[in-house]
Each structure stands twice: as C-alpha cells, then as structure tokens.
Amino acid sequence: MTSENPLQTSCTRLTGKTDKTLTTAPPRLATLILLSALAVLPVNMILPSLPNIAATFQADFALVNLSVAGYATATALTAVIAGAMTDRYGRRPVVLMAVSIFIVASVGCALATNIGVFLLFRTMQASIAACFSVALVLIKETSGEREAASKIGYAAVGWAVAPMLGPIFGGTLDELFGWRASFIVFAVLGAAMLALALCDLRETAAHSQRPHGNYLAAYGQLLSSARFWAYTLCMAWSMGTLYIFLGGAPLAVGHTLDGSSAKLGLYMGLVPAGFILGSYLAGRFASKHALGATLIVGRLITCMGLLVGLILSILATAAHVLAFFGPCMFIGIGNGLTMPAANTGVLSVRADLAGTAAGLAAAMTTAGGALTASIAGLFLVKAGATHVLLGMMLISASLALLAAILAAFVDWRASKMVS
Question: Which of these, 93, 63, 94, lies nearest to 79 by C-alpha position?
Fold first, then answer.
C-alpha cells in the first residue's frame, strides 16, 4: 500500500521532474522502532561484563570503565555530526554507514587482544547512535506533527525496554559463554538491521531541499530559535531530573534495604517502568492534543508526584521505602510523555535541518542533564537525606515545566502570527 509523498509532489511541481531518491512508501514504524532500540542497547548491555573484561586484559577497572564513559562521549559527538550529515547527504546513506561501522566495531571488540584495541573498537561502536536521530527524523518526515509525536511515543517504549533488558541479557551471555559473546550478538543484530534497512529504508529528504551552507551556519540558525531552546531545555531538565534520581537514590535510601543491590535495582526499576507507561500514553493520546499541552501535562505529572514525595519525606521520619520510590515513578511517566512531544517540536523548527536539530538537541539534552545532576550532587552528601534528593529533583522538574510553558507559548504565538 502506497500513498502520495507531499515532499516528492512539491519537488516535482517546482522542478518539473521527479527526484529518484524519493519513494512513496515510508519505512514501517516497526523498522524505526528496532533501529532506535539498537541505537541505545549497547550503552549498558556490557555493564555486567566489565569485571571479566578487566580480568581478561589484566587492566585497571578504571581504564575498562572508559568503555562506558568514553562510549557516552563518543555517542554525543556522533549525534551532533551524524545529524548534520543526514541533512546534507540523506538519511539512508548515513544509516547504512553507521550500521556497517557498528558491525565491524562489534567484531573488533569480540576479537580484541588488548585493552587498547578493545577501547578503540568500543568507541567506534558509538556510530550506531546516529540511527537514533535518523529514526526520529524519518518518523517526523513521514507523519504530521501530532501523529509524529504519537509514533515517537510508541518508539520510546523500545528505547526504554532495550536498556532495561540489556544488562540482564548481557549478564546471561557473559555467564554462559563469556563477555565476547555480547559483541558477537551485537554484530549479528547489526547485520540483521543492515539487511532490514536495505529492504525497507528509503530516502525521505528531497535532494533539492537539502542545505548547502556550512555546518556552523546551520547550528547557528537552530540556536537562534526560541522554539528550539524551549523544547531542548525542557528535555535537558527532564533528563536532569532522571540523572539526579539515578545518582542520588542509592545514597539516599540504599541503607534502608540492608545492603541488597537486588532490592535497590528492583525499586529503581519503577522509574523506567513509568517511562514505558508514559511513552505508551503518548502513543495513544499525543496525536489528539497540541505538543505544548502534552508537554505541560507530562511535566505537571512529574512535579506533582515529586511534591507528594517531598511532603511525605518531611512529615514522616521513618517512611516506607515505597514512599520514596512510588512518587519517583512519576519521573518516568512524565518523561515518557515529554520526550516524544519535545523531540517532535525540535524536529519541526526547520524542516530542512531536521537531522541537525535532532543531533544537536540530543547532545545538548545529555550534556544539560549531566550538568544538572552534577550540580545537584554537590548537595547530596548525607545518606538518608531523601528530602534533599526529592527537593533537587523537584527543582529540576520545575525548570522543565517552565520550559514546557515557554514552548507552548512560543507555539501559540507562532500560530497567531500565521492566522
């Protein structure tokens, strides 16, 4: 079943001929969900294997840990560069190149004989991060604005499930077959994704509409947009709220669980479970409401949940652990609603710079979230101070709410100017 591609139609009317790189059949949503899930799976799947990797190479654990920290840095850089490349050279070529590099890098990690070679190929694995931004752009370019937010909501379920199951899957592979098995699986998944991309992924950006200026000018145009800043800051502070939780929860409540890492992990899993629920709700309802409204609702849910948690922590001197983790679950629900709407807003700032916007926003979100968590960490110096942790998270969530209100106002003013 095919449908007319409005981008191709407009291009034909302007030039009198059809751009052969376009297709009337958009990629299936399932393909884009799998593509974005593969992009986030390598982030933490190898975490259970780090001690065994260190033992194999007889390397210091801090050095081996660069396979996580270095990978995160390379991911941010990849997002910025690859996003601009997709605008310049097209979505499909960047995906095929990124997945191909990922396959080679995964094989290289599996065959590495020393820590230096392993870290080199591990850094190269970050090329797959480009597929995350491309998946968002492809959804936006083949859907209306509200429909895109809905589809991104469904895709976000994949983003949440992959990191949740990754460490469990990776740990099982390590225990049964050794740590190299995880990278063999990465290579196999990459090969399967490459075959799927070759069959189902077609170009959605008209060649005549691709930007021809320099990359810095493109970044400057985005950074001069109030809409881009509003949506990106909303995502950054929303992510900062999550990062504060991830870094502070073990210190604040870990002592109440008798040192049980399993219990701590189970309770902390309430937040990603909430994200899955929020993403599902975004998929169901985002297409029926304006982006700004969805954004504000998501942020209000998080703020209200954290406010209840803060009140409970102040009033109860020996509250049950669920009095802390229950309200924190609303971080996940709020973020699950926020991210699809905010990403759609970012991609809508400039249609010809959608890839650049996706990559730049992703990097700024990650960096902004990490900076927010680092600042909050300066105040989290005492074990058991749940009210301090909840207060820090509420501040970050409130800033995200203000950014959401700003985004809604900017969109409302733009609609009034158009009408």
Answer: 94
